[in-house]
Design a protein that fits this description.
Blueprint: H1 5-21, H2 23-36, H3 44-56, E1 60-63, E2 72-78, E3 82-88, H4 118-139, E4 143-150, H5 158-164, E5 173-180, E6 184-185, E7 192-201, H6 217-231, E8 240-247, E9 259-268, H7 271-292, E10 295-304, H8 311-324, H9 331-342, H10 346-350, H11 382-386, E11 391-397, H12 408-413, H13 417-439, H14 441-455
Parallel strand pairs: 3-4, 3-5, 5-11
Antiparallel strand pairs: 1-2, 2-4, 6-11, 7-9, 7-10, 8-9
Length: about 475
C-alpha cells in the first residue's frame, strides 16, 4: 500500500513516460476512427477497433455492453475501487473534411466528420486506461480500471441507455475529457436535454381545385414552430428550444402535403424543469394538429441529464493537470493553427478567450480553476453518469484558439498532430488522476460524500423512457 506522496509521483512519472514511449500505438487508432466517421449507434468499426485493442492489452471485454450494439466495456484488475474512464467515438453528419486543410475541403459530399473530436476522445480514454493498467501491474495498485466505450453522445444519449441498463452500478468514480482549443477543467454543470419528433398526418388534395378537401401536415409543422417561437418569451431565460424540419411534405407546391415532420430539441438547467417544458412544447404541437385537422404522433428520439458537479474530483484533476503541464506545439503546428484562425470570424477568435491569448494561434497554458454555479450552454450524456457516481472532465487543447466545435476547422485539426498531442496529454492527466484515486481512498471518499450531498433529495429523471431503443441518425 502506498502511503506517501512520493509514491504518487513515481506512478505519475511512470504513466507519463510509458505513454510517451507508446504513442505510436494509439495515434493510428485515433486516425482510423477519424476516417471511419461513424454516426450515432452505427460506430461498429470504431467500437470493434477499441475492443480489439483492449483485449490485446489484457482487459476483459464486453461487446454490445448492456445490449447496446456499439457499446464496449473493458475491465482490468479486481475488487474496489472501480474507476471508470469514459470514451466516445461517434461523428457528426454533414461535416466531411480533409485532414490538415486550412480551407473547406470535404472528403465526401454530405459525408460525416469528427467535428467534436470523439476520435481523439475515445482513443485518449483508451490510452489512459492502458497506461493506468500498466502502472497497476508495475506497482501492484489495488482496484479495477474500466474503460467505457460510449456510443452516440451526439444527440443519441448513449450513456443514458448504459446507465438505465445498469452498467455503472458498481463504479466508484468516473473521469473523462474533451478536445478543445484551451486547457481547463470543466467546473460547471450543463443543460438537461431531450429531443422528439412531431409527425403530422393529414390528407392530400389539389391545392387550387379542391384545397378544402385537404388537411395540410406542413401547416401543422409551421404552426408548431410559430407557437414555440411565441413560447420562448414565457420560459426561463436559460432554457433553449431548437428545431429542424425533417420532412416538409414533398416538393410540389400544388399538392396539399399529407405528411410532414419536425424534430425538436429542448434544454433546461435541471432535469425537473425539462419535464415541464416538454409538456408545454408537446401541447403546442397538439394545438397545431387541432387547428389543421391533422393527426399527431410524438416519437422520443434522445435525451441526457445535466451534470452533477464534483469539486473534489475537479480539484484533483486540476492539480494533476498543473503538475503534468500542457501540450507544446512546434513551428509547423503553430503555422497551421494560424492559417485556421484566419478562417474564423472575429467573434469566434475571441469567444470566451482571455484577452492575453487572443493574438496566439495555440495555447500552452492551463487556465485557472474557477468553479461556477452557472450551467454551461451545452449538453452531454456525461450528465447521466454523473447522477450515479462522481465525475470530472478535463478539456485539452487540440486545436487553434477559438476553433468552434462542430465545424470543418475542427475536423481538419482533429486528424493531425495538433489533435494527437492533446489526446496523449489528456490520457496522462486522466490516468494519473485515476491512479491517485486508487492510492488515496480518503480523496475518493470525499468525492463520494460530496456526490451524495449534491444528489440528496433529488430524483434522477432518466431521459430515456421505458421501451425506447437506440436510434441511428435518420438518413433522410
Amino acid at each position: 500500500m502506498f502511503e506517501h506522496r512520493e509514491h504518487t509521483l513515481y506512478v505519475r512519472s511512470f504513466i507519463s513516460d510509458w505513454l510517451d514511449r507508446h504513442k505510436v500505438q494509439f495515434i493510428p487508432i485515433g486516425d482510423r476512427i477519424w476516417e471511419f466517421a461513424e454516426t450515432r449507434f452505427e460506430e461498429f468499426r470504431s467500437a470493434e477497433l477499441i475492443a480489439g485493442e483492449l483485449e490485446r492489452e489484457g482487459f476483459d471485454v464486453q461487446r454490445k455492453a448492456g445490449g447496446i450494439p456499439t457499446a464496449v466495456v473493458g475491465s482490468y484488475g479486481q475488487g474496489k475501487p472501480v474507476i471508470a474512464i469514459l470514451g466516445e467515438y461517434d461523428a457528426l453528419s454533414g461535416l466531411s473534411q480533409h485532414r490538415g486543410e486550412p480551407r473547406p475541403a470535404p472528403r465526401e459530399s454530405g459525408g460525416n466528420g469528427h467535428g467534436c473530436g470523439h476520435n481523439l476522445l475515445g482513443t485518449g480514454a483508451l490510452a489512459a486506461a492502458v497506461g493506468l493498467r500498466k502502472a497497476m501491474e508495475r506497482y501492484g495498485l489495488p482496484g479495477t480500471v474500466r474503460y467505457y466505450g460510449c456510443p452516440a453522445e451526439e444527440g443519441g444519449g448513449g450513456k443514458g441507455y448504459m446507465v438505465r441498463n445498469g452498467l455503472f452500478r458498481d463504479v466508484d468514480a468516473a473521469l473523462t475529457w474533451h478536445p478543445a482549443s484551451m486547457n481547463f477543467i470543466l467546473s460547471s454543470s450543463t443543460l438537461a436535454t431531450c429531443q422528439m419528433y412531431f409527425r403530422f398526418r393529414g390528407r392530400s388534395a389539389h391545392a387550387a381545385g379542391e384545397p378544402h378537401f385537404g388537411r395540410s401536415a406542413l401547416d401543422a409543422v409551421e404552426l408548431t414552430n410559430v407557437g414555440c417561437n411565441y413560447l420562448r418569451e414565457h420560459i426561463i431565460s436559460e432554457a433553449r428550444i431548437h428545431y429542424a424540419i425533417t420532412n416538409a411534405g414533398g416538393i410540389s407546391p400544388n399538392v396539399v402535403p399529407a405528411e410532414a415532420e419536425v424534430l425538436y430539441k429542448i434544454r433546461t438547467p435541471h432535469s425537473e424543469q425539462l419535464a415541464e417544458l416538454y409538456d408545454r412544447v408537446c401541447n403546442v404541437a397538439k394545438g397545431a394538429a387541432l387547428m389543421t385537422g391533422t393527426e399527431l404522433k410524438i416519437e422520443f428520439d434522445a435525451g441526457s441529464s445535466e451534470i452533477i458537479v464534483n469539486r473534489t474530483l475537479e480539484k484533483l484533476m486540476h492539480d494533476t493537470f498543473r503538475e503534468l503541464g500542457c501540450p507544446s506545439f512546434d513551428l509547423e503546428e503553430t503555422g497551421f493553427a494560424a492559417q485556421i484562425r484566419d478562417t474564423l470570424t472575429e467573434s469566434e477568435r475571441t469567444h470566451q478567450v482571455p484577452p492575453e491569448l487572443r493574438h496566439l494561434p495555440l495555447t500552452d497554458r492551463l487556465e485557472p480553476y474557477k468553479p461556477s454555479d452557472e450551467a454551461a450552454m451545452g449538453s452531454t450524456d456525461v450528465g447521466d453518469v454523473s447522477w450515479q457516481v462522481p465525475v470530472a472532465q478535463c478539456w485539452v487543447a487540440c486545436s487553434a484558439i477559438g476553433t468552434p466545435l462542430h465545424s470543418w476547422q475542427a475536423v481538419s485539426q482533429f486528424g493531425v498532430s495538433i489533435g494527437h498531442k492533446g489526446m496523449l496529454h489528456a490520457a496522462k492527466v486522466m490516468a494519473a488522476a485515476a491512479a491517485e484515486l486508487l492510492l488515496r481512498p480518503d480523496v475518493l471518499k470525499q468525492a463520494k460524500d460530496e456526490h451524495l450531498r449534491r444528489v440528496q433529495g433529488r430524483a434522477y429523471h432518466c431521459p430515456i423512457p421505458e421501451g425506447a431503443v437506440p436510434k441511428p441518425v435518420r438518413k433522410s
